Amino acid sequence: MSKVSFNGLSMPVFTAFGWAGEEAAQKFAFEQLNLFIASLHASLSPSVQNELPAFGLSRESQGVYLAANSDVERDGHIAFYARPLSLEIQLIIRAKEVLSKGFSAADKDPLHAHRLITQLGPEWSLRIQQMLQEESTGSISHYQDLFKDSVTHFSPEIAQELFAKAAYLLDQEKWHIGFYLSRRWSSEQVSVMGLSVLPVMREQIDQLLPVLHYFTGRAGRKKGTKRAAVRRVAALQEQAPVQETAVAPEDTFTFIAELKPLHIRRGFINMTPKEWPFFALNARSETRAVTVYYEGLYDKKSAVWRMQPDDMARLVLGHAAHEWLEDAFVPNDKIELIVTRLEKDEIQITLRPVAE
Description:
The protein has helices spanning 11-15, 23-43, 46-51, 96-108, 110-118, 156-170, 187-193, 197-215, 227-237, 261-266, 276-279, 319-328, and strands at residues 54-58, 63-67, 77-82, 86-93, 125-133, 140-150, 175-186, 245-247, 252-258, 268-270, 287-294, 297-307, 312-316, 334-341, 347-353. The chain is an alpha+beta fold. It has 2 domains: 11-215, BirA Bifunctional Protein, domain 2 (2-Layer Sandwich); 238-353, DNA-binding pseudobarrel domain (At1g16640 B3 domain), CATH 2.40.330.10. It has an 8-stranded mixed sheet. Strands 1-2-3-4-7-5-6 form a 7-stranded antiparallel sheet. Helix 2 crosses helix 8 and helix 4 packs across helix 6 (156-170). The longest helix is centred in the first third of the chain and has 21 residues, at 23-43. 31% of the residues are buried.
């Protein structure tokens, strides 16, 4: 028997699932999906193949999967669903024992867990589903969605509250949680990719792995996480000072600045000399690269400069963050900077308007 090679997911693969009763078309589509997942698994690095050794086809869900366990639901897995108009990739974790580790860790370190999810980008959506296990039958059914939206709307405040609630629910016997991260491509877009669909999806898997590791409890997490400092961030975020001010705990501080026309036009935000030591790598350093987070987006092209002659700290925004500043603010508006030191000594600055 000659071996059939994978050449890409053509449009008939997608349209087949919109035809009721077309068994021949669906048979062809399932064969192509099977070839796709086998080829994708073969193209993964050996380390990722070891992490996700199981793969196969699910006719019931009209998709294919890569899984950490042959019993797919016992651990996290990555699925691909073909529909008439789209191909969806989805990270799925529903095993209670597995997720309880992840949400317990996220509750202790919500900023880091939030970052892992939201840095995937605005194309991704997050769903956290609360499910009820019936005492009499043991069956599990949908109860409500704790969150279901684009990751751009998954704010640090929402994340902190949700992680705490999910961790609590998973300690209760009757409650289960479903964790889903998903992204879609149009079927037309995928059909013209041809074999390029393999490296594209391989890249998506690489991006999902840190989230999979964290929420299944397999990843080493930061030591010495200071929960009190994180809670201080939340307390500071609830304040709305009407004048420029700064508070500097060990791992985080917040700062309120008033924007002048030059600040908006040139894309920078001034702090004071008191803030510079937080950013300084050493006594001679003049700049410090930082990550800026705003409205669900990340800008890694920003930096904090030490300005002479008084050592004032100035946040100089990257192009994307500068465009947002120009669109979102007018002169004399106030902006809040929430500055946090993350693992590996990375500094993240969250920017948001201050409501008058």
